[in-house]
From TrEMBL:
Keywords: Membrane, Transmembrane, Transmembrane helix
Top-level taxonomic group: Bacteria
Chain ranges passing through the membrane: 65-84
Provenance organism: Chitinophaga tropicalis
Domain FecR protein: 163-258
InterPro entries (alphabetical): FecR, FecR_C, Ferrdict_sens_TM
Pfam family, one: FecR
Lineage: Bacteria, Pseudomonadati, Bacteroidota, Chitinophagia, Chitinophagales
Keyword Disulfide bond on entry: no
Residues in Protein FecR C-terminal domain copies: 300-369
The name this protein goes by in its record: DUF4974 domain-containing protein
Claim: Nuclease is one of the keywords in the record: no
One GO molecular-function entry: sigma factor antagonist activity
Length: 372
C-alpha cells in the first residue's frame, strides 16, 4: 500500500491514521524540533510543504511516498528514513536521552613525512606544505592533499614513504604522485611512496578507503591491507578493512581487480561485485549495489538489512563515540535506511530508536543501548 505523504498529514488531522501511520507523522515531526503536537494546523502543514523543495530530488521523493504496512514501522525525517524489520510495530516511546550530543565528523587528517615530521592538515595553510625528492606536496583550497611531480625528481623519492591517517570523526581526500585519487574514511590510514617506480605501484591501508586509480600501462597498482592484497590496472573500488570488522570487503565499481588472500585463495571481480574475506582466509564473491559501499564517500549512511552492531560500529567511528551494547552485542535485528552523515548523532539515534524496541543514552561521548 502506498500513501501520499500529504494525504497522510491530512489523515492525521482528521484522526483517521492507523497507529503505524500516526507513528510516522509524530516521529518525523519530532525530528524537525518543532513544538509537540496534538493536531497539525494548516500553518504547520504549509511549513512542512515548504521544507521539501530544498531537499535533493531523491529525498523529496522519499518524503512524498511512504510505504505503510502493519509489519514495518517507518520513520521519515528530513534527510533520511529507516525501515525496521520485525514481526510487530512498537508503540511510540520517548526518544533517546541525549545529554551530550555529538557533531558529525569532518575533514581532518595527519600527514607524516619521510623524516618523521607530522603535519595536522586541518591546521595547515593552503599551498605548498613540503618538498621531498623533487615532489611538491600541496594542500588545495578544498582541503585535498596533492602530490605533484617536479622536473627534477630525485631517485630518493622512490624510497621516501609518507602516511596520511584520519582519526575517528575524520575523513580526507588525497591525490598521489601518479594521479590516483584516494578518499579515506574515519579511523583509516594509507602509507605510500612519495613517487612510484616504472614497474609497479604499491600502497598499504588500514580502515576504509575508496580508490580511483590512474591507469598507467605496464605499471600495475597494488593495495595491501589486513589479510589480503588487491591488484589493479585502472579502476574504481572500495576496501573496508577495519580491525574491528569481522570480514574484509572489497567492492568494485569500475574496471577489474583481483583480490588475493594471504592464504593464497583469490577472486577476480567484475563491476558490481564484492569480495568478502573471512577470518579463515576464505574469499566469497557476490553481486551488490555498489553505492552502498561508498555511501560514506558521498556523505550518507546507507544501510541494507544491517544489524545494530554493524550500524553502531560505523556510528562510533564517524561521531568518535564509544558504544556499550548491553545484551545487543550479538543482536540480529536488521535495519534498512538512509540518513545524511552531516546530521548530529542525536538524529541518527532517534531514527533508530523510533523504529525498534531499543533506547539510547548518550553521555560523555558514550552511547548505552538498552530495552525501552
Amino acid at each position: 500500500m502506498r500513501v501520499s505523504f500529504k494525504e497522510l498529514l491530512h489523515k492525521y488531522n482528521a484522526g483517521e491514521c492507523t497507529p503505524e501511520e500516526r507513528a510516522i507523522i509524530e516521529s518525523w515531526y519530532h525530528q524537525l524540533e518543532l513544538p509537540g503536537l496534538k493536531e497539525l494546523t494548516d500553518e504547520q502543514l504549509l511549513e512542512i510543504e515548504q521544507l521539501t523543495p530544498s531537499l535533493p530530488a531523491k529525498q523529496r521523493e522519499r518524503l512524498r511516498w511512504v510505504p505503510v504496512a502493519a509489519a514495518v514501522a517507518v520513520l521519515v525525517t528530513v534527510g533520511g528514513y529507516f525501515l525496521y524489520h520485525s514481526g510487530s510495530v512498537p508503540e511510540p516511546q520517548p526518544l533517546a536521552i541525549i545529554q551530550d550530543d555529538a557533531l558529525p565528523g569532518s575533514d581532518k587528517a595527519v600527514l607524516t613525512l619521510a623524516n618523521g615530521q607530522r603535519i595536522t592538515l586541518a591546521d595547515a595553510k593552503n599551498g605548498e606544505l613540503a618538498k621531498q625528492g623533487g615532489i611538491t606536496i600541496k594542500k588545495k583550497a578544498d582541503g585535498e592533499l596533492n602530490y605533484t611531480n617536479g622536473e627534477e625528481q630525485d631517485e630518493d623519492a622512490l624510497s621516501m614513504i609518507n602516511t596520511v591517517s584520519t582519526p575517528r570523526g575524520g575523513k580526507h581526500h588525497l591525490v598521489l604522485a601518479d594521479g590516483t585519487q584516494v578518499w579515506l574514511n574515519a579511523a583509516s590510514s594509507i602509507t605510500y611512496p612519495v613517487a612510484f617506480n616504472n614497474q609497479e605501484r604499491e600502497v598499504k591501508i588500514t580502515g576504509e578507503a575508496y580508490f580511483e586509480v590512474a591507469q598507467h600501462v605496464g605499471q600495475p597498482f597494488r593495495v595491501v591491507c589486513k589479510g589480503q592484497r588487491i591488484d589493479v590496472l585502472g579502476t574504481h573500488f572500495n576496501v573496508n578493512a577495519y580491525p574491528d570488522e569481522p570480514v574484509i570487503k572489497t567492492t568494485l565499481l569500475q574496471g577489474a581487480v583481483r583480490v588475493t588472500a594471504d592464504g593464497g585463495e583469490s577472486a577476480l571481480l567484475k563491476p558490481g561485485q564484492q569480495a568478502v574475506l573471512n577470518s579463515l582466509q576464505h574469499v566469497t564473491v557476490s553481486s551488490v549495489i555498489p553505492e552502498t559501499a561508498i555511501d560514506w564517500k558521498e556523505g550518507d549512511f546507507i544501510f541494507k538489512n544491517e544489524t545494530l552492531p554493524d550500524i553502531m560500529r560505523k556510528v562510533s567511528r564517524w561521531y568518535d563515540v564509544d558504544v556499550d551494547y548491553g545484551h545487543y552485542n550479538n543482536s540480529k535485528l536488521t535495519f534498512s535506511g538512509e540518513v545524511s552523515r552531516s546530521r548530529n548523532l542525536s538524529v541518527v539515534l532517534k531514527m533508530l530508536e523510533a523504529t525498534a524496541a531499543v533506547k539510547f543514552t548518550v553521555k560523555n561521548n558514550h552511547i548505552t543501548i538498552a530495552d525501552k
